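re the bet — no i am not wrong, look at it urself. input seq straight from the record:
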Amino acid sequence: MNRHEAMSFNSQVVDRFRAQQGSGPLGDDLPFNADALLLLTHTGARTGTVRTNPLGFMDLGGGRLFVVASAMGSPSHPDWYHNVIAHPGVTVEIGDERFPAEAVAASEEEYEELFAQALEQWPFLADHRERAGRRIPLVELRPLPDSAAPEA
């Protein structure tokens, strides 16, 4: 899938997620269940363009949410990862809930334990890590009471 096709696909997922208020299967043409996704709205590192990506997430309880920057095993980090590192103020949508958050890369101390938990949830990440040949970042999305997070 080239960049244009990926952006078009993501746009369809985002539109369907919002239309269904983040609940249920997204349809026969989109093999995802909205309940397993969140929408991450972020600001472009170079362009300042506001973008939204659908991502799988880990909910560790107590408000701890993590996303994995695997880029399907690509040798490069996904664009959204570079964006949230440059501009950590983001907006998260889960189900019909929307809130501002701060994106923070997982600490070195927590990384191995968190990645092991990610592998339990998504065993295919082992293949992604091998194909990528890089350390796949984990990003915590810390809810904020108020923020200048980007609006979708």
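see?? The helical segments are 3-19, 79-86, 108-121, 125-132. told u. also The mean pLDDT is 89. so pay up
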